[in-house]
Amino acid sequence: MEERILLSTYVIKIIDGNKNNQYLSNFNGSDDFLKLFDKFSNYIFENINQLKDKSGRNTIHLTLEEKPILNDEKRYLYGFFSSGIGGEKYRVKDITTNTTVLNVNKNHAAFRDVFFYLYIPKNKSIGYLILQRKNSFGIKTKLSPALNAYISKEGFLDYYISINNIVHHSVYRKMMDFGKLKKVELVKRKIPNNLEDYVNNNENYQETKGTFRTSFSSRSSLPEHWKEYIDKLLKKEKNETVEIEGLDENFSDLEFQLDLNGKQKTFYVKNQQRTQPDIDVTANIIFVDDSPTVESLIQQSQELINDLIEIRPKNV
């Protein structure tokens, strides 16, 4: 079964001790961050980076299965980070036979590979980083401290590398104007106290804490006037709850999914800060033996970066 391919978009900056942004292709007077990132990638390929998780009990590992590919002329670098968590003993079982196939010790770790693509333009203060995310598994929080520890080791003590999510409003505007509305969910933070009462008496029932979702979806596209209505809500709503005219109750949020050229993204009316930088590009990925091809991952990464460059101010 083909996996969902989620690519997250980030901007990357180098900040000096005076909180000034540096040109990445020529920071510290003569150093190129593209080549420094290549050195970092090769370093953790040989020396697995280790970092304690928030609990302090488990160790997070970051490395690469293979050395990255650098294109100095076109200013990009790509490869697959490999990350895993170790520190606990457990068993791996074949769930069809309930037999143990592997005993995992504290010095073992289960690794997952995630694609990355870095583009560092010449004479600009920002670069663009694409990181693959697998469901709830990502590496951004592991990459940032590992990278900053590495540049300190290399002697760049007056610099800090910043990696931040980038979800520009123009991304929403472009997807809303030219994309398709595939799914809408009304979210309420209360549920019926009694399912039988809800089924038999939908107009009159007691409520308790929980999450109640009303979903509308279409394989092609929901009607155009749905988009117009949601766009108006997103522009004007500032209250704690989203008041949907014509319905009896207030909803805590309205979530919706837009699709543009096979790229899907979920947005939120109330909790707009929940909008994540990941975009579902599965529809545009070529799979061979249920695995995405590197070429299609590169192409989608380049397209996402081009979209970001188009909407960024030209002086950065």
SSE pattern = EHEEEEEEEEHEHEHEHEEEEEH
Q: What's the overall average pLDDT, rounded? A: 82
Shape: globular
The residue fraction in helices comes out at 10-25%
Structural class: alpha+beta
Terminal residue distance = 42 Å
Q: What is the number of helical segments per DSSP (H or I, 4+ residues)? A: 6
CA radius of gyration is: 23 Å
Relative strand content: 35-45%
Number of E-state strands: 17
| Low-confidence runs of at least 5 consecutive residues | 312-316
Main β-sheet: number of strands, strand sense, barrel status?
A: 9 strands, antiparallel
List keywords for this structure.
single chain, disordered C terminus, four-stranded antiparallel beta sheet, about 25% helix, alpha+beta, 6 helices, about 325 residues
What does this protein look like?
- By secondary structure, this protein is an alpha+beta fold.
- It has six helices and 17 strands.
- The strands form four sheets. Strands 1, 2, 3, 4, 5, 8, 9, 10 and 15 form a nine-stranded antiparallel sheet that branches. Strands 12-11-13-14 form a four-stranded antiparallel sheet.
- The longest helix is centred in the last third of the chain and has 18 residues, at 294-311.
- Mean pLDDT is 82; it is low at 312-316.
